[in-house]
Amino acid sequence: MPLLVMTGFILHVRSNCVKPHRLVFFLSVRAIIMELFRKSEGKVMISNRMSEKLKAGSLIRKMFEEGNRLKSIYGEDKVFDFSIGNPDVEPPFEVTSGLKDLINNPTPGMHGYMSNSGYLSTRQAVANKLTRSGHTAFSADSICMTVGAAGAMNATLRAILDPDDEVILLAPFFMEYRQYIDNHFGKAVIVPTDAGTFLPNIDRISEAITPRTKAIIINSPNNPTGAMYPASTLEAINTLVASYEHVIHIISDEPYRELVFDGQEAVSTQDYIDNLIICYSWSKSLSLPGERIGYTAVGPRHPDLDVLVPAITMANRILGSVNAPALFQKVIEKAMDAKVDVALYENRRNLLYDIVTSSGFTCQKPQGAFYLFVKSPDTDDMVFSQVCARHNLLVVPGSAFSMPGYFRLAFCVSESTIKGSSVAFRAVSEHYGLNPAQS
Ligand SMILES: Cc1ncc(COP(=O)(O)O)c(C=O)c1O
To answer: Comparing 55-64, 75-84, 137-146, 182-191, which segment has the lowest mean pLDDT?
Structure first.
């Protein structure tokens, strides 16, 4: 800034006040005065809320950066980075062929604005798919195409929350939920799941419900535990919310719905829950997280269906997304029944589960998604993750998911990384004096 002032000043003096230089000079002086004013006030120019968020940062991001640092020192193949849930499996053939087809056969207006809820043909295809996947018929009018599951959840929360309304989160949970709720001035109310199974505990949820409870967020298959809710759990949640006079929305975040192992399928929430709002994305099922494509679907038995869909669509618009990406709406329409090779993830789950448990750690075998949630042998899971990092093993402490005492491993990494990590797990196990299986 001083350089700018000096330059402005010199030009100003030398040029007999030629107008552009004068402008630089005066703008520079103004900037400096404002800077001094700002410093004297002791204020920063971003909001206090954002300033707090920046200070807190993200544990996963920190692990990610630590991973990059370690990789630059020891080399890619010597660092076992299980920190981030970024699918490393390529999208299936239907995605690439659909994309090529659209590029080679463009239609007029295909890059233009559209209805804020998305193309009718895409919404119809989504409704048909949902109808096929359970025993509940959806119409295209109940769907709003969104910018991924994150966009779906933000549009939903924007549509339903007034300031200080409460949203129940079932710990452990995907940490961004707290940010999404805070974005719309809601309050997160944290209710722990059952130890061991990580399934929702109906009595505890009931104790947490107040007249201000607007929604409960459920997530199955679950990040970070890989747990899958059985039909009985969904039925119990439905019965519970039906017993209240005010409407409590069940927001079902389902980006892992297709990533299910051992020949099972995820139970269709739409068949069990009345006050349902599904938030979905193809980020994981088609390995498209960077393309930002997802949807909200309001259940046909939802008592507020008629107002909710326009409210979510309006929120989608005014939050700045306007509409979901046009090209990828068309791509997923062509790839509606495709999914990534789930067997590949299942194989990785088996490999990692065997390595982790045979090293003496305890965890539940995940039924879906691509995470292992393991008991930390250290009472302080943050310290534990630092000990792991000393062995080039990157894990995310359970505290990041509001469940201290655990750590998460994302197994969307190559088989060679998983196999190579066994030495590191053994070393950490030895550090804590665990009881590894003899190999
Ligand atoms: C449980 C859960 N919900 C939502 C998201 C966000 O998904 P998207 O990238 O489609 O917005 C993620 C991403 O990892 C997730 O794990």
So the answer is: 55-64
109 Cα–ligand 1 center, Å: 30
Atom of ligand 1 nearest to the CA of 147: 11
* Residue 258, pLDDT above cutoff 80: yes
Relative to the CA of 150, which ligand 1 atom is closest? 11
The rounded mean pLDDT for the chain is 91
Report the predicted TM-score, pTM, of the whole model to 2 decimal places.
Answer: 0.90
Residue whose Cα lies nearest atom 2 of ligand 1: it is 174
- Using CB distances shorter than 6 Å, the residues near ligand 1 are 85, 148-150, 174, 219, 223, 253, 255, 281, 283, 289, 294
Kindly tell me if the per-residue pLDDT of 315 is higher than 80. Answer: yes
Distance from residue 85's CA to the centre of ligand 1 (Å)? 9
Distance (Å) from CA 255 to ligand 1 centroid: 6
pLDDT digits (tens, 9 = 90+) for 276-287: 999 999 999 999
Pick the atom of ligand 1 nearest to 152's CA: 11
Distance 150 CA to ligand 1 centre (A): 6
Please count the other Cβ atoms lying within 10 Å of the Cβ belonging to residue 98.
Answer: 22
E strands, 172-275, are 187-192, 213-218, 249-253
Per DSSP, what are the bridge partners of residue 251?
Answer: 217, 277
Fold for 56-89+341-431, please state it.
Aspartate Aminotransferase, domain 1 (3.90.1150)
Give me ligand 1 centre to Cα 296, in Å.
13
pLDDT at 36 > cutoff 80? no
**249-253 sheet: strands from edge to edge:** 143-146, 294-298, 276-281, 249-253, 213-218, 166-171, 187-192
323 within 8 A of 74, measured Cβ to Cβ: no
- pLDDT for 69: 84
Class of domain 93-334: alpha beta
